[in-house]
Amino acid sequence: MTLFLLGLLISGSAAIVLALVILQHREANGALPFALVMIASAIWAWGYALQISAVSPELALLAVRIRYIGLLAVPACWLWFTLISTETIARLTKKQAAMLAFFPVLTFVVNVTNDWHQLFYRRINVMPPGSSLVVTFEYGPWYWLNVGYSYLVVLIGLWVLIRFWGRALRLHRMPIAMTVGGLFFMTVIGLIFYISRQFASIFDITPLLLPVHGIWLYLALFRPRLFDARPVAYTHLFEQLNDGVLVFNMQGRVIDCNPAAYRLLGLTNPVGRPVQLVLQHIPQLAQTGSSVLLEEPLRLEYNEQVLDVRSTILRDRRGQQSGYMLVVRDVSEQWRTQRALAESEAMLREERRLFIGGPTVVFRWEVRHDWPVSYVSPNVQEQFGYAPEDFTAHRLSYPSLIHPEDYVRINREIVHYLHHKTTWFRQEYRLMRADGEYRWVDDYTSVVYNDQGKPVYFLGYILDVTNQKRAEAERLEMERQFQHTQKLESLGVLASGVAHDFNNLLMAILGNLDLAILTLSRNDPAAQPIRNAMLATRYAAGLTRQLLAYAGKGNYQISDVNLTEIVQGMAAMLRVSVGKQARLELRLAPDLPVFQADPSHIQQIVLNLILNAAESLSSGEGTITVRTDVRDCDEAFLKRNRINNQAPPGRYLLLEVADTGCGMDERTQRRMFDPFFTTKAVGRGLGMSAILGIVRRHHGAIIVDSAPGCGTTITVLFPPSPIERDSNADRDQESLPPAPSTTVLVVDDEADVRDVTARLLTHLGFRVVVVADGASALQALQEQSSEIACVLLDANLAGMDAPTTLRELRALAPHIPVVVSSGYSQHEVLQRFAGQTIEGFIQKPYQMSELYGVLQHALRQFLTVTVADQPSAADAAPATQETPDADSSPD
Fold first, then answer.
1. 567: buried, middle or exposed (CB in 10 Å: 19+, 13-18, 0-12)?
2. What does the alpha-carbon distance between residue 83 and residue 605 come to, in Å, rounded to a whole number?
3. Rounded to whole angstroms, how far apart are CA atoms 405 and 440?
4. What is the pLDDT of residue 733?
5. What is the pLDDT of residue 873?
6. CA pair distance 143, 139, nearest whole angstrom
7. What is the reported pTM?
8. Do 657 and 613 meet the contact criterion of CB atoms below 8 Å apart?
């Protein structure tokens, strides 16, 4: 026993010394936990020695508890060591440390408090067999639980080492295997000691084996620094290397191979086999054996890869050749990149050749005063007419070529960009060519800065965009004209609708006034106010005709018109209209060709233009010139047409009115034809809009030249092509009284119009049947077909429309004449009734005399022609006498 006691003391001391030595290698992975294992084994050995040599029961029990401090710490520190040294974990966290220490601490508490619960020892027997005390135990359940936990932890550590052995270099696997084997042997002996009864009286030799095993671990692992950063790095580098590495000895057998070699060369279990056999599927490498050294890298293609292969001689510490190492690198991506780079360089050379000969000129300007040019591409000669040497020799200053109106802006923008450290910017300005023409250029400039952030030079790409600018301007002008046309068309629709509805109201007013005047004697005091009201109503009707003229739906009486004769016939009135202080000059071309138009509308155009010109004269003083002529107009001139229709190039009749007045700005010119727009203090704004509608209806054009303070010239063009004449213009207006008891069917959806029309017809001696819609008209005609002699049909009916109603009426009674009434013009109505026969037309508002004339004309026409020879709508329409506009003053 004395020798065993001495062995425990020496073993504990050796463990302490070994712990101090290991702590000197604290930078190595696992040094600290392994030192703690040795310290715990020393506590275990010394506590065991104290237990054996105790002279009193109390000292023996204290020694048992000291011994258990080491015994409980050894497994936990051992597991900590294996986890850290094999890099299974980077470091022990607080949570992991608490988990490792929980059971040992709890077991120690159970051991210390065993007297209260007997979970660890059921009984402790202290027997003095001689001079020394012998302590024996009857173990409780917690003791065996602790034994199982301790050996489980030790086995887990062994498993971690075994897994690490599989990842380690083959050079280092043998020491690790011997360490694992020795630890496993020690563990088995200790386990046998605990479970075998025949060893129950033998001392526990585990504390003696632990320091011995610790010394072996130190010599096998720490001294060759197997767990140090360098071998671990070597292993990691070898395993993670993207290059494949194949190591074989002098006999030509493969002794090691990394995963990249498996992947690149398609190997299967190469270790231990001859290299010629391993690489037989790659003939170029199969000959690279123990006697072949590649002086130059070998490039080969294998499995859609491009590989570079190098071989290196391996030598031991004495410098003796011990084998070869074959390094295989996948250069597929590099090879593709080199090929792409070569293709790109070839393409770049081609692009440079095309670029130099292309439209973009490259400039490099120094960041100094006047931007001296240090480089300019050769195509500057072709694009702008300057030799490159003119710029690089500083014979020509680039800023001097920039348009003066653009230079200040360009310079200001560049200062702004440099202040904000802008790396590139884009500008548009005008640059002068060698022939003196200014061209619009698009300048894309990048700024190059030095390391101090100061701008060094500009690199600009100059592209002539003059044609694009012109095309864009033309596109914008076309869009503007299109929008203006749409606006005018919308206003025309609005004006047409307003005029129609207003004419219906005027019809009711004028008809009632007509009836009222018939009930009064000529000298009745109330007669004159009624006549004034009738005159005002006719004046309002003139306004609606101007609206219809603007909308292109006015009433037209087509005849041969000579512009010179029209102006000559109006000369006296025009001189009075312009005033005494203004001078009117007439420059009228004789023998002008005639064209077909409405003479009253042409007179309205002349009068409105003259009055507008007179209004523009300052204080009424100035000159107004009226000119008529024939002109050949080209496409460029007709593009200025304010009507926005595509007038074809050719010969036109010209009416030109020029004044020396105040002129108009561009904004006023854009709005001058808008309805209700006026610059006068008093005016309606319908004069110029009516001119627009009339000229558009005659397929003409209007050209305006004006500027503030420079007067205005308005040119109206009429095409010489004839417009279809109204065949009713020369119809006989002979009057016939209505037949006795003649019945007229009135069809109108406006109650006021129906009522006043019925009373007018009754006063004229007609019998009247009044209905509000087409269906009622058909029913009335069916019931009274033998009595109804004429139909007065409104052109705008709700429900069944007027053309449909007319067709149905013709089907029932083809012999009955039909007169159409409408607030629209005769031309507009005849278009709606195209292909159908009507015997007359009357425009609202009308007076009783006009209504009587139209009806008697229709009745007479019906009586004098056969049904087979009934005229068409265009031929049958009567030429109604249009009342002149109440106010032709332009605005």
1. buried
2. 107
3. 13
4. 36
5. 40
6. 6
7. 0.36
8. yes
Let me know how long the chain is.
891
Query: Are 552 and 499 within 8 A, CB to CB?
Result: no
User: Side chain identity at 517, as an amino acid letter?
Assistant: I
CB 616 within 8 A of CB 659: yes
- Give me the residues of the chain with pLDDT under 50, please: 197-201, 225-230, 290-291, 681-682, 722-737, 739-740, 865-891
Residue 458 token pair? 């500009």
Helix (H, G, I), strand (E, B) or coil at 790: strand
Alpha helices for 764-869 (secondary structure H): 774-783, 802-812, 826-832, 848-864
Give the per-residue SS3 of 527-541: HHHHHHHHHHHHHHH
Q: Residue written as tokens 């299974």?
A: 88
* Six-digit token string for 185: 């042997």
- Residue 878: per-residue pLDDT: 40
- For tokens 């219809």, the residue is 548
> Using an 8 Å Cβ cutoff, are 465 and 445 in contact?
no
Q: CA 571, CA 529: separation in Å to the nearest integer?
A: 35
Distances (CA, A) of 683 to 136, 582, 680, 713, 887: 133, 21, 6, 21, 11
Query: What is the pLDDT, as a whole number, of residue 197?
Result: 42
322: three-class secondary structure by DSSP: strand
State the Cα–Cα distance between residues 679 and 683, nearest whole angstrom: 8
pLDDT value at residue 715 = 94
424: which 2 tokens?
Answer: 């590139």
Strands 134-139 and 121-127: antiparallel
Q: Mark 205-231 as b/e (b = at least 16 C-beta within 10 Å).
A: bbbbbbbebbbbbbebbbeeebbbeeb
Tokens representing 187? 């563990």
For 61-178, list the strands marked E by DSSP.
Answer: 121-127, 134-139
Residue 542: predicted pLDDT? 64
